[in-house]
Amino acid sequence: MSAGILMQLGQTLLAILLAPLLLGWTNQCRAWFQGRSAPPLTQPYRMIRKLFHKDAVIAHDATALFRFAPYMFFACMALAAGIVPIIANDLPFSPAADAIALVGVFALARVFLALAAMDIGTSFGTLGARREMLVSFLAEPALLMVFFTTSFIAQSTELPTIVETLAHKQFAIYPSLAFAAVAFWMVSTAENARIPVDNPTTHLELTMIHEAMILEYSARHLALIEWAVALKLFTYSALGIALFVPWGIAPAGDYAALPLAMGALILKMAGGGLTLAFLEAISAKLRLFRVPEYLGTAFLLAVLGMLTHFLLEH
Amino acid sequence: MKIAGHEWDLASLGNHVWRGRIAAAELLAFAQSVKDEGGQLVALWGSDDRQLFPLSPGGRGAGGEGAGFAIHAAFITAAGLAWVSAELLADTPAYPDLAVIFPQADRMQRATHDLLGIQAEGAVDGRKWLRHGAWPEGSFPLRKDFDAEVVRELDAYPFIRVEGDGPHEIPVGPIHAGTIEPGHFRFSIIGDRVLKLEQRLGYTHKGIEKRFEGMDLATGAKLAGRVSGDSHSAYAWAYCMAVETATGYEVPERALWLRALFLEIERVANHLGDLGYLGNDVALSFGFMQFWRLKEELLRLSGRLFGHRYLFDRIIPGGAAVDLTDGSELLALAGRLEAEVRELKAIYDEHPTLQDRMANTGIVAPALAARLGLTGLAGRASAQAWDARVQFPQTPYDRLDVGMSTHRRGDVLARAEVRFAEVVESLRLIRAIVQGIPAGAIAVPVRVPDKVTEGIGWVEGWRGEILVAVRIGADGKLDRVHPHDPSWQNWPLLEVGILGNIVPDFPLINKSFNLSYSGQDL
User: Fold this and answer.
1) CA-based nearest distance A162→chain B, Å
2) Strand B17-21 versus strand B80-88 pairing type
3) Alpha-carbon gap: A287 to the closest alpha carbon of chain B (Å)
4) Looking at the domain that runs over B2-121, which CATH code has it been given?
5) What is the architecture, at CATH level 2, of domain B250-445?
6) Which residue has the higher pLDDT, B371 or B148?
7) Distances, alpha carbon B193 to alpha carbons B197, B339, B490, B509, in Å
8) Are B177 and A199 inside 8 Å of each other by CB?
9) In chain A, what are the domain boundaries?
10) pLDDT (tens digit per residue) in A258-276
């Protein structure tokens, strides 16, 4: 048991520490695809360090909620990183929340960020919060549908069971998973504020979604948010890996498989970051009112995945 | 000169420019005849003539007992640029409101009032425009007797509010993120849909017109070029043209060709930059990087060949400051740029999201553009087929056979298309200029006149027509200079073009116009 808890802590810490690296790698790849020289791999770490060294400026009208939200956001992402099997399966935290509750954890973080954005009463914060809600209320059902598809295959909504089923039990080709994977990718871009739904590098306040919500944050609060954003991308990537390419994740209690699991994780994450950067480099940002269509497509694909499961795999 | 059946007493100054003096009461009739002919108001400005010798023999103030103010207006007509002036009373300077005929006059009239205290009688909008509280109300900086007493009061500007339950107001700026000039935009929105946009400009008012007073002619050229940095060559040429018209000296032909070369390089550089920005604003950084790489190559070559990347101070009164010794590099680069731009255009054309963002966004319909006087590049994208290089070509454009590109859709895509077409055309012009430039001197010494003279210069810059009016005093120093930027006419169209669009599309629409703040704030 104590070994399990140690593993659990190790995995969560690993996720927290490695998350900026994934972001740095993605930024680096994107710079290459765009034909410019890339910032160093460690740029996100430097950014976070710099922000922690600054003095925070807080709006006069801000309530305690505004100060509290970054910690909540970060804690939710750390919890999510603990639940998702990243290098080892069936860790002590895993039963704490199943796939559906995981969606709830993400939603909780978002609610706090949106509330904090409205708390200070600037027009951009409200605008961003409103848009974030528009995006998320369409993205969440699609994400749930993806989880349902995989849950039907594994006959459980518990993530360890799903991973166990897909990775080890019997190797079979599931056409339904192909649909679910595409849907998951589309939802991930929306949830992580990436192109084509949002642009993480823009300076144009009027076009922002996620960035508009955090415009008033500075110093340690901003550092936590930036770190949590990196952690969210990392957790989503780990989730995608766990659901669709789970091979290599160490089974419960198998410590000898950990080095292999670590190697597999790094390879898969690197591949994912490269793909994300490539797709971002060739895409433009959608007009805001096309986002519902985009997420509608994701929902449709997820439903198709589920139907395919019943038609072909049952 | 006959305009729409009326005979007006205007004399030709050459270069398709006509000059006349009319009574203030006739201004409306004159504007109406220009309107009837399909012309437009280009610029409107005033001057303080109280300490000046009367320019017209029959005018007020003969004998020096207090000539008053004057209001000047420049119109585009079928025959060229018509520049008329009307003398106004010294104690109560007023003239009829021209905005009823040409709505674009509104802001120019308000600015003229802020700077000179000349009143447009009967104007609907009597709010201040350029005055932000840096000088007190009732004090007018462009008057010769202005006592520069600086005050700092808060700028209380009465914005027009959208009343009701649903609308939400977003104030944006004057300070923006990124390298953008200051300007305030007040959005009234429902959801993300824009109900009203109101601009508040004037944050970069530097008193350029006041600064010109008493400056010598050569220094004036430097200042004129800095009115709006992205249109340096256009302003510098227009200023020099005005000075040359006023003083009557002939510029060597080679210098005119060189000026056209600088102007076309400036046009290509700006268009390339804008095309990149349009990609960047929809998160297609690929386009941004590629177009800016091409722009950078052009700037570097300009720096190498002419000594300044943005060609600052290469155009001087009397000619050009630098000669083209070997054009082979420029020829090669122009050819290569054209090939690369065509390649990038194919990518832009086939990018579905980019096309979706640009098409049908920020539409200014041709009829509206004509009514409100949309001009220049944005005007040509809304079927306003005016290009001084085409209709009223001066040397060397009269020998280059410039092609005009127009569009009818009037959306962001149309403005991008016109830019693409103009880049290709300007690259052709650059090659034609390098190959056809005549030999000879590149500058003549400037003779300073010993009497009051005036002139006007008119150049098609990359954004639209740049106009500079100059009056040189008897002491050979500048007495009054008015630089006019096409942004004056085009800013109000942005307020209209955004209506019905959504807030996140505003940066893209704004960038597709890419108007100058500095040029209109003066």
Assistant:
1) 36
2) parallel
3) 6
4) 3.30.460.80
5) Orthogonal Bundle (1.10)
6) B371
7) 11, 40, 22, 14
8) no
9) 2-312
10) 888 888 889 999 999 999 9
